Amino acid sequence: MSAKTSRLSRLVLAAAVATAGLAGSLAVGNSAHAVGTSSVNGQITRSEVLARAQSWVDEGVPYSQDGSHPYTDSNGSYRSDCSGYVSMAWHLGSSLTTQTLRGVSTQLNSFDDLKPGDMLDRYDNGNYNIHVVLFAGWADSAHTTANVYAESTWGTNASRKTYSRSYLNSADFRPWRYNNIVDGTTGSYPDPATLPTGTLVKSPNNPTVKLIINGAGLAVAGSDVAPDGYNMGAVVTVDDAKFWALPSSLPSGTVVHDQSGTSNNRYVIVGGAALSIAGSEWTADGYNTAPDMGVPTSWLQQALQNTLPAGMVVHDQSGTSNNRYVMVNGAALLITGAEWTADGYNAGSDTGVPGTWLQAAAAKTPPTGTVLMDQSGLDNNRYVMVNGAAVHISGAEWTADGYNTQALMGVPGTWLAGSVNSTVADGTLVKGRGGADPSVYVMANGSALPLTNAEYTQVFASAPVTGVPETWEAAQVARPLKNGTVIKNASGADPSVYVMAGGKAVPLSGADFTGLGYDKQPLRGVPGTWEAAAVAKTAPADGTLLKSSDTTTVWQVVNGGSKKAAAAGSYNAADVVAVPTALTTQLPTVTQ
Description:
elongated
C-alpha cells in the first residue's frame, strides 16, 4: 500500500524534547509504583485508583485466592483475586469479597453513570458472588466498549481488558461506586475534550500525557517524543477527572497509521483494537475514503495487541461473504443462519472488519481458561477451553474449582458442539484444578498419560500446566490411547517407533513405518514409563481388529492373546489396525 498523507501528519511539530528524564515519566505504564497520597479507607481520587490498579499490571501480579499469603508491595497486602484487586485499588483496609465490596459502595442507576475507578460486580440469582472488575473508562464516546482492570483466573496476571456493553448486560454486571472516591481537581483547569485535535494534555496529579484526537485521549510514551515529533513544551494541564474520563480509543471505523512514519501500514480501529488493512482492501473496502490519522507509536502498538470486545458481532467489510461472527477473547466464532435471530445476535450492532484479518480470527479458538456456555440456553452445561477443545465442567466443580468467578461467555451452539467434540492438543500438560489428584498428565490423541516426577522435570517442565476439571481428567486418564496412534518416547531414550493396538505398543521397523503408511500420520511423543508398560503387554486387548500385509484376513483378538478370523461384514474397516506380520504370526489362531 502506498503511503498516504495524514490529516494529522506530524502533529505539533515544534522542537521535540527527548531528555531521558522526561521521556521516562510520560505514561503510567512506564512509571514505578504510583501509590499516591490517600490513607487506608480514606478519600481517594480516581486518578490514584487507576494508578494503583495499573501498578499490579506493571508488576505482573498473578491471580490467587490464597488469603493466607496475600500479595504485598508498596500498595499494602491484599489477596490477588478479583475482589482483592478492587480492594487494593480503592486502598481499603483489607481484602473484601465480591459480596462485601457492596458495603463500602453505592449502586449506580446505569452503565452511563460509570466513571473511572468505579466497579462492575456480577449479579447471579440474588448474589454477588461471581466476579468483579474495576472500570477504567469507556473506549468510545458512544459507551459501547468498556476498559476494565481485572484479576481473572488462575494462570493469568492482573490485566487491562475490554468488555462490550452487550456482554456486560448479558452477564448481568451491575455498576457500583466506592463511597470515598472523589473526582479530583476541578475549577480553573480546562476540559480536555473541548481542546483541538493535536493538543497534548496532562492531569495536574499524574505525569501521563495524552494526545487529543477528535475528543479522545491517546497515551503518549517517552519513546514517542522524538520519532513522533511531539513538543512537550506545549503540554496543557487539564481537569483531572475529565482527563481520566477521556475515551481511550478512537471510534470504530477510524483509519490510523504510525505517527513516526516508520511504517506505511494502515489500520482500522474497531472496539479499541487496531486491525491491519491489507493493500488489496485499502481501496476495495473503502478505507481510502476515511481520514487517515497519525497516532502515537506506543499507543498503536498496544492497540495492535488488543482484542475486540467479547460479544461484538463482525462481518467481512468487503461484503463478499454474508457470514457473521461473534468475538470471544480474540477468536471469531461463526454464527449460523438459524442462530442469528434465535440467539439474539441480530439485536446488536454488526461491524465490518478487514476480510484478511477476519480469516485469521476465524481460524483461532478462544484461549485456554475461557469459560463458555451455549448462547441459546438449550445446553445448560458449562465448559472451559483447554488448548482448542471445550471441556465439560461438572456441577460440583463449577463453584468448588472457582469457575463461577470467571467471565462466562455465551457462544453459538453449533460452534460449541464442534469444540466439545474436539480433542485437547497433543503435548498439553494438565492437572486436576480441584487438587484431589496431584498428578500431571500429558495429552496424546485424546488420552491423558501420567508423568513421573522425573519425566516432568527432565522432559516436560518447560511447558505450562493447565488446571482442568478433574471429572473430565479422570475420563481421559481412563481412555486407552486410540488404536492406530503412532508414538515415540518423548525423552528420546528409546528411538523406536510404535503403533497402538488394543492398549499394546507394537514396534514398527523402518519398513513397517513406511509400508503400513504410518509415516503419513502424526508421531506423538509419550512418557517413557508409560510407553514401556504399553510395550510390555503380551497382546492387544480382546476385540481388537488387526490386519497384516501377508494376508487379506482381518483378525480379531480373543481369549487374552489368540486370534480368529473376523467374519466379513461384521466390523467397520476404520477400526482395523495395520500391524507388522510379526505380531499376527505370534498370536495363536483359534476357530471358535
